[in-house]
Amino acid sequence: MKDYIKNTVSLFAFNFLTIVYFEVLFKIRVLTIAFDSNLLRVLIFSLAYSILIMFIIKFFKEKTVKYIMFISTVIIMFMYFNQEIYSSFVEGFYSLSIAGDFTMGLSFISDYFYALKFIHVFYLIPILALYLLNKYSLIHFKVAYENLKAPLIFLTSFGLVFFIALQTISEEVDAENIDIAYSDMDLYTYMYNSQDALKKFGLLTYTQRDFFSLFRSDPLTESEYDVLLDDFFENKPAHAGNTYTNIFRDKNFILITAESYDTYANNETLTPNLYNLKQNYAYFDNYYSPLYYRSTADTEFLVQTSTYPDKNVTLSMSAYIGNEFPNTMPKLFEQRGYSTFSFHNYTDYFYPRSTFHRETLGYDLYYGSEEFGMLDNPPEGAIINNHVWQSDLEMMEKAVPLFINEDKFFVNILTVSGHFRYNSSHEIAQKHEAEVLQYEADTGIELDEQVFWYLAAQIELDLAIGYLIDQLEENDLMDDTVIMIFGDHYAYGIDKDTIWEYDDIKVDNDDMDIHNIPMLLVSNSYMFDQHIENYMSSVDILPTVSNLFGLNINYKKVFGNDALGNLDNIVHFADMSFISKDFSYDSLSEQYTINDEIITPEYLLSLNHIMINDYMYNVLVLEYDYFRKDEEN
Fold first, then answer.
1. pLDDT confidence of 597, banded at 50, 70, 90?
2. Rounded to the nearest 10 degrees, what angle do helices 2-29 and 125-135 cross at?
3. Banded pLDDT at 290 (limits 50, 70, 90)
4. Hey, what long-range contacts does 132-140 have (CB within 8 A, 24 or more apart)?
5. Rg for the chain (alpha carbons), in Å?
6. Please, what is the angle between helix 295-305 and helix 541-549, to 10°?
7. Is residue 352 within 8 Å of residue 331, measured between CB atoms?
8. Which residue in 276, 393, 402, 487 could disulfide with 261, CB within 3.0 to 4.6 Å?
9. Considering the chain, what percentage of its residues have pLDDT values greater than 70?
10. Which sign, positive or negative, has the C-alpha torsion 325, 329, 334, 340?
11. CB contact at 8 A, 338 and 329
């Protein structure tokens, strides 16, 4: 009996210490570590899960228990390790609801291995410890139940400890006089912010809540949700006309979403067209493109619909491809008599753009790489590890003749030449290796390898922009055309430390400021200030463009704002952080920065809760296809 108890205690201690070790390591590596109530809560949850593991394994014989211990330790290790690797790419956290992304994930398996660092060996320590404990007989696996009472004791202990952990989650809001408020218990229930959930409850609890959320039923009926959404939109402030209203009415418009176009890609020598546009036209100093789970596709979703992507689905573009979106860029321009075009120089391998752009967004014409004759769409279900990125210049040469002779045109262009990985095997970057080598020789600068190939790839974008402007000038259309160029996201294919070393605009080590990327507005008919200070992000592009061109948008039924008419506009990030000219809030550190003495922490706290509320209503709009009712009426 003494050995039996000793074996049980030692296995229980190993499980508990292993889970605590992974939780602390994960917090140090990905989140923040602090000796506070959140850490205590994580420890209590870890204790509960350790008891549950013991409850299960004690049903088995010694040899099976040993296998289960090794397998479960490896599985738990991969849960934490994979979340770290995943977050290093998309600054978010994996969810069971996006498990359908498995095939796409395999296509980037080489990038997974590329992300491995020596420091990741720390994730292997519990496995090594278990191996050594077993090898030197310091731990034993003979722990099978010896009576019928024992399972009930363990199960009851698990329930009690888990209940205690739940009692540490507050149902109160940490501020008074807030009309819209969410407690920590709301976070536990609805998991509206994965980063906060991981920080406050730990990864195992996050995974547990994520799993059970798949089976959660809606508390209200669809008609009741309709009433809630009607009230939500009705109470939104109306849009007011401003200095910029209608200044581009009936002008042609070209919207260019440039792959990984970042601030240091405006290089006087290597990308002179982009550099000159920045020097001579309007540049948005405070444009941010927050990174969501599906990066480029989610930026498209934000820009084209002014609706936030749903973080609980594999891909919003696919999940809501059958939804009705009355306020889309092409539909609004079409109402003004424009012909609408959308062009992209890659396949539908990652995203169903052919269908989404034509049928959901409403473009008259969509050309991808297959329609351009550049690259065929791969067979359905194919796993491709070597993605051959296509030429932006070639796409532009093929696209311009398709719209240049239209009376009025709106053209959406999504480039791909600047896509990572930035190394010597990048097909587009190879074309411009000599130019970058010459730049290094002329300046005496030895570029980091990633930056070298990144700049080489962006030269192709610059050539495409130069060709476009030449064609507009040759056809006497430059004065009647407005061009907006912006990055889809920061160049996350480059290490952050390297970005901060080479980027003289971003604030070093600021995880919000890293999303501050270029936006250019090119127009000969209205001269803006060279530097536009207004804060804006991807979700604000549609309402801002609608105001400039006098489009018939319903401003109340979008989630972005007309940023040029709102000096106090706020940029929202996926993790519920936010920034404006007067204040910012970092949700990871829970730190507020206030630049105006009239702003109070209580006001910023209320904004935080309003953001959560808006996002949850945004998800309801998508889940219930709310705008279809408007269209049918």
1. confident
2. 160
3. very high
4. 133/14, 134/66, 138/10, 139/7, 139/10, 139/11, 139/14, 140/3, 140/6, 140/7, 140/10, 140/62
5. 27
6. 40
7. no
8. 487
9. 96
10. negative
11. no
Q: What is the three-class DSSP state of 21?
A: helix
How far apart, in whole angstroms, are the C-alpha atoms of residue 123 and residue 117?
Answer: 11
Contacts with 400 (C-beta within 8 Å, 6 or more apart), sequence order: 467, 468, 471
Residue 481, phi then psi, degrees to nearest 5: -130, 140
Closest CA to 143 of 55, 49, 71: 55
Please name which of 499, 448, 473 lies closest in space to residue 263, comparing C-alpha atoms.
Answer: 499
Q: What beta strand segments (E) does 332-480 contain?
A: 339-344, 365-367, 409-414
Whole-Å CA distances, 605 to 176, 373, 398, 608: 10, 52, 50, 5
d(CA 199, CA 579): 21
Query: % helix / strand / coil in the chain, to the nearest 5?
Result: 50, 10, 40
Q: Match 């209205």 to its residue by tokens.
A: 526
pLDDT at 22 over 60: yes
What is the spatial distance between Cα 561 and Cα 540, in angstroms, rounded to a whole number?
Answer: 5
Q: 484: which strand partners?
A: 255, 521
- What 8-state DSSP symbol labels residue 236? S
DSSP-based three-state secondary structure for 177? coil
Mean pLDDT, residues 9-21? 97
**pLDDT (tens digit per residue) in 30-72:** 998 888 999 999 999 999 999 999 999 999 999 999 999 999 9
The DSSP line for 555-605 is: GGGSSS--GGG-TT--EE-TTS-EE-SSEEEETTTTEEEESSTT--HHHHH
Other CB atoms within 10 A of residue 359 CB: 13
Ordered structural domains, the chain, with CATH: 2-213 (no CATH), 234-632 (3.40.720.10)
Q: What is the 3-state secondary structure (H, E, C) of 54-109?
A: HHHHCCCCHHHHHHHHHHHHHHHHHHHHHHHHHHHHHCCCCCHHHHHHHHHHHHCH
Q: Which of 2, 587, 5 is nearest to 290 (CA)?
A: 587
Mean pLDDT of all residues in 164-185: 84
Q: In 3-state terms, what secondary structure has residue 248?
A: coil
pLDDT digits (tens, 9 = 90+) for 80-139: 999 998 888 777 787 876 655 555 554 556 666 777 888 999 999 999 999 999 999 999
> Which positions ≥6 away from 177 have C-beta within 8 Å?
602
Amino acid type, 323: N
d(CA 434, CA 600): 54
Instruction: Using the predicted structure, report yes or no on whether residue 255 has a pLDDT greater than 80.
Output: yes
What pLDDT was estimated at residue 425?
A: 94
Neighbours of 413 (CB within 10 A): 23
| pLDDT tens digits, one per residue of 560-589 | 999 998 888 999 999 999 999 999 999 888
Question: Mean pLDDT throughout 273-277?
Answer: 98
* Token reading at 609: 């809760």
Token readout for 477 is 């259309």
Q: Give the strand pairing for 536-537 and 287-288.
A: parallel
* CB neighbours of residue 34 within 10 Å: 12
